[in-house]
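Quick start: what a row looks like.
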Amino acid sequence: MEKPFIIGITGGSASGKTSFLKNLINSFDSDEICLISQDNYYRSKDEQPTDENGVHNFDLPESINAHEYARDIQKLRNGETVYRLEYTYNNPDVVPQTLVFKPAPIIVVEGIFVFYFAEIADLLDFKIFIDAKEHIKLKRRIHRDQIERGYDLADVLYRYEKHVSPTYERYIEPFKNEADIIIPNNFHYQKPLEMVVSYLQKKILNK
């Protein structure tokens, strides 16, 4: 198998990465593209750092097992299948499934720290940064965490102010200018998505 083309996609929390990724993945056949997400490389809760008020902070680089993430990306790059136990967000009622990541011509690496971790960034052939205005990201985060996940509004706002925003400013935004393409996602991203899909389709045809 020829060396795959590896894309890194990042952006701030609630910038719209998940929606963009879903539409990107759906633009290809399942054997043409593989998505491996940072979400399944969180360390266990007892290993997570806490802030000055004793609240677990899952928005720091040390929350992620970057070494294992980079190792598995390298395996896919070498044509090996990767098996990983699903991360269940510390929910004791959920039985984790074994996830299977198969090599493909296009490998998509996604997460808020994929540009920050040098051992991961060095594996990327193409970098995409999903961007959105701060007030729009906050509105989306409130909707997701309060309405979809049932979190208390005060808790959502606390984490956004104390964890999410500082992390964006320190570990995500400084790498924005390293992206090959920056996609504004304040309202929609259809045209940039079409450009990315067309570019990747040409990559597959040229292999």
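That is the whole record. The CA atoms of residues 15 and 132 lie 5 Å apart. The chain has one domain: 5-198.
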